[in-house]
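Dear colleagues,

As part of the handover before I leave the project, I'm documenting each prediction I ran so the next person doesn't have to rerun anything. This entry is a single chain, and its sequence is reproduced below.
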Amino acid sequence: MIRLLSITSSRADVGILKPVWSALIETGRIELHVGITGMHCPNSDYVKSQIPKGAQTHQFGADIGGHYGSYVVQAMSQIQANSADLYARLRPDGILVTGDRMDMFPTAVAAIPFNIPIIHLHGGERTEGAMDDRLRHAMTKLSHLHCVSNADAAGRVCQMGEEASRIVITGAPGLDTMLMVDQIPRVDFFQELGLLDNGPLRLVTVHPETNSTDMLHAGKSVVEALTQTAGPPTIITAPNSDPGGNELMALMTGFCQQAPNTVFRATLGAHLYVNAMRHAAVMIGNSSSGIIEAPLFGLPVINVGNRQLGRLQGPNVRNCESDVPQIIDQLNEILAGHSNQNAASYPYGDGAAASRIANAILDQDDLKSLLNKSFADDTAKFVNPW
């Protein structure tokens, strides 16, 4: 049995990891442990409810909590120290990490002195408007097996000197989650959220732009655009806990308190969030879900600002600056029917990523053999398997 420790640090990666956890357990060859940290630390009830039976859970670390500077460094230090304690006690054969978050990065760093192989999901992607970009690429170099979401990402990981034999194009497992969620009838969905179905539904998720001198600029512009076009049903979900998250949360909740037919949810959970994407006419903000998952539903997306700059996009995405008139113009065009919502293009896979990830791990005769890496000077060419 392979003792594998998967780390989750935010509500966003729960949707990514849930099908992977199930696929790993279903192999019958993996003893799955889930480390819970970061945004889950204040209240881990939701994430624990999503972890499949058969996995053991371990909570540790701290929440960055939308703060800045020294507070963030101290929280990262606590996560790293607590990770070391967990690794010393558990002695996993491998660690599964995802993406690019500040509360995920220290769990990878802590694995180095223990010589624990790291499997990394969603490496090789670009988000030049966020400090996540640097963290993601750093985690790539710390990792030993790369399960990437598309051929472009695979090529980028290879450009960083990683050997082609260590790179597996699996697709984005978040799509697996989307396809597994049952549909809620529109009337029931609106009743569940307490919204009046009197117009096209708007789904809004905005996070801080951590590479910007004004991390709240995109959020302020979106709120003003929503204010000037108020009336249609609107769902706003909470920003993440990156620096600036607290101020952005206050901005969003303040708007929702006075805006008509608008609800704020810290988290919708996969069931409601997927159905929000199914019933929405447009998604507004700068969340990766608008780029990775929204194409599955043909959902038009207004991607505001630079947070997702450089990330592979489908034809459903419209990019605009953090400019109120631009956002309103894009919104009006989409709602008038001038969008690419019927253009089927799924740059991030076919909804079968979880089984590919499980197989990529099981295909290794011994995870420890991955530890000795060479720097590959020659880059390889990659093709998506779907």
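The chain has a mean pLDDT of 93. The chain has two domains: 2-173+351-370, 184-335.

All the best with the project,
I.
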